[in-house]
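Action item from last meeting closed. Structure (350 res):
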């Protein structure tokens, strides 16, 4: 059984919501869940997905924010949920997820995935003290001094980020961090990284993106926060729909799309040090042995997929046919088998 979330939006507010799907403005509504009605604010969310028939939403109620993802491009509907469970197993805090049926003004919109927002509540729940938080919203968040496409210098090193928490001075701090990692080298860089970056967290996050094959996960689709007690930057994964052998549009892309070092300037700098490469290799080996195995991941796939399977038959807003959905557990299991071998081979060259 999956729960049902019923959102009621009055006609005037609904018209306002649909006037501009790209608007960041919330409209008012009511959420009916477990027989209770609570006021909420709702808006559309996402990038290219806003123009899809089945849209994703952001809702705020009871002082908390949730993302209701249509997962329109993912034929399995479980890639985000599976990825975040995997990250949690390898020691990287990541959003909790839950599948549910969404109704809007009495009409079923089909199966959705509720994702916990990365915000103050996220940290409070995990007893993590964070002094600043930024979302990496586009590929300018590549830890480089220049734009990835034009190769021109950025006007501001804060480009690609959106501040969610912390004082305005924290923007300058993050920009200074990006500047320093690009300008320093050798021992001064090693010392700077040790005092400004939680290297173990970073390497585990990197490994998670590499194992799941998230091509877009290295220069966007992450959150970076500053840990208050240590003043070190740490990373949290976000948006893992294009993973486990498919890209962000759901197209099969093979198991070798992502290289073992990923794609950004910070990783490049870190990998210039033998001690970091050795530590990264240890993390990869440990994950291969304990977490990224078909035996470990198969029950998670079976549970997530099996729970929503009966509801998928009646989800008429889906991009993919039900037959494609049915074959996804085998598709993902095959990806795991192939990915393990690719990573083992690449580890030898680290």
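Sequence:
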């Amino acid at each position: 059984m999956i729960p049902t979330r019923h959102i009621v939006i009055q006609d005037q507010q609904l018209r306002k919501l649909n006037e501009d799907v790209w608007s960041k403005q919330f409209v008012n509504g009511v959420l009916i869940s477990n027989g209770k009605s609570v006021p909420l604010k709702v808006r559309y969310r996402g990038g290219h997905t806003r123009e899809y028939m089945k849209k994703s939403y952001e809702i705020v109620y009871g002082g908390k924010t949730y993302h209701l993802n249509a997962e329109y491009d993912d034929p399995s509907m479980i890639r985000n949920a599976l990825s975040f469970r995997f990250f949690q197993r390898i020691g990287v805090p990541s959003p909790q997820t839950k599948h549910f049926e969404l109704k809007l003004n009495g009409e079923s919109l089909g199966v959705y995935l509720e994702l916990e927002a990365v915000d103050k509540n996220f940290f409070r729940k995990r007893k993590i003290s964070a002094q600043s938080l930024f979302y990496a919203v586009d590929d300018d968040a590549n830890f480089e001094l220049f734009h990835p496409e034009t190769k021109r210098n950025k006007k501001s090193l804060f480009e690609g980020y959106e501040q969610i928490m912390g004082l305005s001075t924290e923007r300058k701090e993050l920009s200074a961090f990006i500047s320093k990692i690009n300008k320093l080298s050798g021992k001064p860089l090693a010392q700077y990284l040790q005092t400004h970056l939680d290297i173990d967290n970073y390497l585990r996050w990197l490994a998670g993106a590499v194992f799941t094959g998230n091509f877009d996960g290295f220069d966007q689709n992450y959150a970076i926060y500053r840990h208050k007690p240590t003043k070190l930057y740490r990373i949290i994964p976000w948006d893992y729909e294009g993973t486990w052998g498919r890209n962000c549009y759901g197209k099969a892309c093979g198991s070798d799309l992502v290289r073992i070092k990923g794609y950004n300037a910070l990783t490049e700098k870190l990998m210039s040090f033998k001690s970091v490469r050795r530590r990264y290799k240890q993390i990869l080996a440990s994950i291969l042995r304990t977490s990224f195995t078909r035996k470990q991941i198969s029950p998670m796939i079976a549970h997530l997929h099996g729970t929503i399977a009966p509801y998928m038959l009646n989800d008429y807003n889906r991009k993919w046919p039900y037959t494609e959905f049915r074959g996804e557990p085998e598709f993902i299991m095959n990806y795991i088998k192939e990915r393990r071998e690719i990573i083992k081979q690449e580890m030898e060259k680290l």
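Note appended to the action item: The mean pLDDT is 96.
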